[in-house]
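Q: What residues go here?
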C-alpha cells in the first residue's frame, strides 16, 4: 500500500485492475491493462479510425482498396476474376527448351546449348558426341580431344 500514486487503473468497466505499466489506446486515449488494450479487448468506439486493414490478393500480392462497409472477400474475389495479373487459368510453362536431337521429345527448364553447333539439347544429348555434332571443323573423341 506504499505506492498508491503509481500506475493507473484499467478503464474497462468490468476490470479496473491497477496496472503499473498501463497501455494507452491510440484511438480513444484511455488507459488499459494488458488484457484490454486491443481495440476488440475494450470494444473501442473509435477503432474504425485506426484499425484499417487492406486485403492483399493471394495470387498477385497486390493490396486491394475497399470502400467502407464493403465485404473484403467479395472485393478480392472480383479482383481475382477481372483485374488480377496472375490469373490461375494461364499457366506459365516451365520446361520450354526442347531438345534439338532428332527423335528426342524431352524439354528442359534451362537452355543447354552445344558449344560447337549452338543447338539446344536435353541432359542426355548435351555433349557433342551424344548428339552427333558435326558443326566443328574437326571431330572430338570420347576423351574430349580433337581428332585430326
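A:
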Amino acid at each position: 500500500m506504499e505506492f498508491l500514486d503509481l500506475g493507473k487503473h484499467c478503464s474497462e468497466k468490468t476490470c479496473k485492475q491497477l496496472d503499473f505499466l498501463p497501455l494507452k489506446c491510440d484511438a480513444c486515449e484511455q488507459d488499459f491493462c494488458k488484457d484490454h488494450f486491443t481495440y476488440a479487448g475494450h470494444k473501442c468506439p473509435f477503432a474504425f479510425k485506426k484499425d484499417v486493414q487492406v486485403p492483399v490478393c493471394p495470387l498477385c500480392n497486390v493490396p486491394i482498396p475497399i470502400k467502407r462497409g464493403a465485404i473484403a472477400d467479395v472485393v478480392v474475389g472480383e479482383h481475382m476474376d477481372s483485374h488480377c495479373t496472375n490469373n490461375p487459368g494461364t499457366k506459365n510453362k516451365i520446361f520450354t527448351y526442347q531438345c534439338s536431337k532428332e527423335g528426342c521429345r524431352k524439354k528442359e527448364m534451362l537452355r543447354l546449348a552445344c558449344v560447337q553447333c549452338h543447338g539446344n539439347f536435353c541432359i542426355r544429348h548435351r555433349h557433342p558426341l551424344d548428339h552427333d555434332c558435326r558443326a566443328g571443323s574437326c571431330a572430338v573423341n570420347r576423351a574430349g580431344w580433337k581428332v585430326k
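A: Context that may help when evaluating the design: Strands lie at 8-9, 18-19, 23-24, 31-32, 97-98, 107-108, 139-140, 146-147. Residues 7-51 form a domain with the Zf-an1 domain fold (CATH 4.10.1110.10).
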